[in-house]
From TrEMBL:
One Pfam family in the UniProt entry: DUF2459
Protein name: TIGR02117 family protein
Organism (species): Mesorhizobium dulcispinae
Length: 222
């Protein structure tokens, strides 16, 4: 029993050390050069206690690039639409946990071990800033395009393009799609968000498994 407790304490300590270093060591180590016209696009990072999403402002270029969303019934052409919100996550946890009250053991276990992944897409109206759970960043056109490339590449492609998951969604304003990659405790929704932000020319921590560590690193280095 004592050996197990020592192992558990060591494991928790190693995880805490990794998370701390992952927050404090920037990635990339040096800031990337920003293109001319810096700060022409404003993106948002949305967070809750365990998950982060990226909100992209709706405009004609975004509508054209993600036209398949309208094909699935998402109202990206609606006058009130202001943002398309993208998130990547574990299939079982995402699809089987629409609210915290519906949390189940099996999806949590799969999220901590190995699970298939999905993209969650939501259409939102105005999002208030400033807000404790909203962080805004200005990026240039070149990095905005790179961010859209990264998001687009996360959708798994079928014979007719991105594959929407039938009858999966929390409301009439969101949809789930099959995604590339696998989800686990080390490579999760927040590390996906961090990689997307690096594609946008921003700096994150080296490893950010939690929203709080990602938020700290973003404030430190941007």
């Amino acid at each position: 029993m004592r050996k197990f407790l020592r192992f558990l304490i060591t494991l928790v300590g190693a995880a805490a050390l990794a998370a701390g270093l992952g927050t404090l060591v920037p990635r990339p180590l040096w800031p990337s050069a920003m293109a001319a016209g810096e700060g022409t696009r404003h993106i948002l990072v949305l967070r809750n206690p365990i998950h982060t999403d990226i909100a992209i402002p709706v405009e004609d270029g975004v509508r054209r690039r993600f036209g398949f969303l309208a094909d699935a019934g998402l109202p990206i052409d609606a006058a009130a639409a202001r943002y398309v919100v993208f998130g990547w996550g574990g299939r079982a946890f995402y699809l089987e946990t629409p609210t915290w009250s519906e949390l189940k053991a099996v999806p949590v276990f799969e999220a901590l071990t190995l699970d298939a992944s999905v993209m969650h897409v939501d259409v939102a109206g105005a999002i208030a800033e400033p807000h404790p759970d909203v962080a805004g960043f200005d990026i240039d056109e070149v990095h905005f395009s790179a961010l859209l490339d990264y998001i687009q590449s996360s959708f798994q492609q079928g014979s007719n393009g991105p594959m929407v998951i039938d009858n999966a969604g929390y409301s009439s304003f969101d949809r789930f799609y099959e995604a590339n990659g696998h989800f686990n405790a080390l490579v999760g929704c927040n590390t996906w968000t961090a990689a997307a932000l690096r594609a946008a020319g921003l700096r994150t921590g080296w490893w950010n498994p939690l929203p709080v560590s990602l938020g700290w690193s973003m404030r430190l280095y941007n």
